[in-house]
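Bumping with the actual sequence this time:
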Amino acid sequence: MLKNSFISLFLSFLIMSCDPTYPISIYNSRKDTVTIVAKTTIDFNSDELDYKVLGGPYNQKVIEFKMAPETILECGMAIAEIDDDMPFSEFKVFSKNDTIVAKSQAEILDLFDKNRWGSLETPYQLTIK
């Protein structure tokens, strides 16, 4: 009986994952509405977003949507590191005064909030400044 309990406990530790999951979100910190055009990846997921599909296959759609001032939109989940779970492969923000363009994963990662040591903060948040 004790042996079976030990085996069950040991197997449950093996099955559990040690990597936490973090939401990925976009935060429009500006005082005006912005328009976002993004090329999504298969990791993009947002049930709350009303977006227009501009083209592309199902796993790399180009979408357009608007974000009101001071709003947050959850658009995916990452298991531990964001590198393999990035919801976008290209990301563009259009406002009245300027445009932000990120055409690669490295450029998109530069838009995410970082701590004082330069590492990405968790949960992952891309802040439009």
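The tokens above came from a reply further down the thread. The chain has one domain: 19-128.
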